[in-house]
Structures are given as C-alpha cells and as structure tokens.
Amino acid sequence: MTQKMEVYEYMKEHGSITSMQAFRLGITRLASRIHELRKDGFNISSETIKRKNRYGRTVKFSKYRMEKAA
After folding, report:
1. How large is the angle between the packed helices 3-14 and 30-39, nearest 10 degrees?
2. Starting from the edge strand earliest in sequence, which strands make up the sheet with 44-52, in order?
3. Which runs of consecutive H residues, i.e. helices, occur in 25-67?
C-alpha cells in the first residue's frame, strides 16, 4: 500500500490525521501526501492547532480532515 493510500485509509477510519500520527505510520512528509490526495480530487481541510509541548513552549501543527462530498 502506498503512503498516500495509508493516509487516506487512516483519515477514513479515524476522521483526521496529524503529522505525529502519520509519523507513527512511518510517513514523514504528510503535507506531500495530503497534496497528492487533493490533486486526486479529495476535499481535505486543514486546521492549525496550538498546544504546549513537554517543555512548556507553544507549538503549532496541522490537523487534516477529509470533508464529505457536497
């Protein structure tokens, strides 16, 4: 299975994916896989999340969600 399809299947099962979740699947370039899926016609939204890391610093990351077809 390609990384693109792994990302698709993960989002289909879990509703969304972040870079940390993708990394656990062995996918280190999530934004590239999302770009490929969008190019294939999938409607994927992104949301910027802000959280504190284990050192207390605020970090930002993207959470990608597969949107329902209209």
Report:
1. 90
2. 16-18, 58-66, 44-52
3. 30-39
* pLDDT tens, residue by residue, 33-59: 999 999 999 999 999 999 999 999 999
**Confidence at residue 69, expressed as pLDDT on a 0 to 100 scale:** 66
Task: Give φ, ψ of 23 to 5 degrees.
Answer: -60, -40
Neighbours of 64 (CB within 10 A): 23
Q: Is the dihedral of CA 54, 27, 24, 4 positive or negative?
A: positive
Report which residue type is found at 67.
E
CA distances from 12 to 16, 20, 28, 50, 51 (A): 8, 17, 19, 24, 25
> Would the CA dihedral through 2, 33, 16, 67 be positive or negative?
negative
What's the predicted TM-score (pTM) here?
0.88
